[in-house]
Amino acid sequence: MADPIPQFEALVAELFQGKSTNYSIILDLIQRNKSNEKELQRILSILIFYNEFLDSKCRTIVDAIIDVNWHGFQEEGSKSLYKKFFFTLLNSQMVHTQRFIQIQVSKFKSKMDEAEYSQMAPDVHSILQLLAQNQPSCTELILHTLENQFPYITVGTAVQFRYFEQMLRIIDFIPSIRSQVLSILIDRMLQIDANCPRDVVEATLETAEEMIFDMETMDGEAVPAPPGKPTPGEAERKAYIERLDLMMAAFFNFIKNTCFPKGEFDWQETKKLFKQLLRIFDNTILPANDCVHVQFVMFFVSSFRLNLIEGFINYCSNKYQDPSMPVLHRQAALCYAGSYVSRGRFVPKKVVISTLESMCAWANQYLDKVTHSVESLEYHAVFYSVTQAIFYIIVFRHRELFAVNSEIIGTLKLQRLVFSKLNPFRFISPDVARVFTQVMKTCEAFDCERILQQNKDTPLRISEAADECRRFLHNFFPFDPYLLVQSGVFVRPIYRLFRDLHSDDRESFTEDGDNEEEMLVEFIKTIDEHHRKAASVNARRWESGSSENHSFLLTPSDALSYGTSPGFQ
Question: Is residue 416 pLDDT above 90, yes or no?
């Protein structure tokens, strides 16, 4: 019997002339030669000339070729031929486009070793790029497929993180979908972040710290820690935490690479990215009051320039001053503004002062206009949120403020706010009220102890409707310390910790008039080195198959050096 491959062209020609019995023969030849690169070259070379006939009736044949492991081809010419086949086919037979994109994107979820994956991923990107460049209408289909094929939240860390990284890389050659891709990725991180509440992360880090100490004997010699299998619940929590840590690190690194291509700050690209992330923040992060870490993407990207710092604060100001917004959204915007100005080492004194002036002006005007002058959280939730933000900022930044202007307390009319009939100390976080009182006493400004004691002696009764606002005020400090270890290298250098009132405050990152560009470049070089080391460790872990051992890449003790009170950790 003659070798069927040399007769392949005749079989194909006869098929399209009406000899339907050839269909199964052709399909069998393709299936049997999937691993034979030479024969596949011949098959593809022939089918290229018949692509106009490969309509929906030939889907099984086309699917068989889609499923070929073309990433393993030894010759670059074979890969080029594969791409050429599908490029010409999809130009004439778009019925196969969706299926082709689905199969290619699904390869990003492959559980292959690191070497094979590293060979496969660029090949998939190259063919998707070719498709997007020559058929712009396919970009929406690619985006839709990426979103639909995102691994489920409980899928293993290696699979999710690899897919996450590939989505970020697709932005490089399809920049038109960047905003949508970033929104999808942030939404996924928010889902995971909701499963990583602060107390759970702290407990997990404490366990990791204890395990490190258990590795040492009394004489200092390292010994293995006693074996202990985590409970299913503990293992799941650790998996979520590690997953989020890796994703946040990759996202921060994307921001850094976008804003600092080749190590040089690009203002135009940074401004464009900031606007996209701010829109995403407005739509997805601001309404989510159960997130602990994802909001730090705005903290990080806005730290690069004064215009961005002011842009984020102005966004929050416009939000809380808009009476048409839901009350909880206005409260959230104030929580973000207060926490951001307090915690950002990059926020200069002049911005702190202008923010306080704006907030105090609003609060004092509110007192001038208010008709329902009885203390009530239900009626005055936004006012109480404004005053809490003011007191919180002063607690963190009072040394700088009083060094600049010793009369600022009188200028801001703080005493009027504290002793107003609306009695903000009664409803704001007790910790904020207490520490603010200590600050005022230390600075010899005015005595708040009396109002604290009066509130303590009078029981508080609030309606169910106001209870959510109260819990929001007491517990939501969105830029409380960032706990994730690996991705924390992007945050820690620009983050202000709460210091004891009697300690020296040496937390300044930038002062008015400092050279922002030089400081930024040095900062980026530092986190680059940390990220390279972490990426190398991750690659070795995927290779060894230890992707689910949840071993933290840096010592967790740094992330645990905080207190336990919300807002002052």
Answer: yes
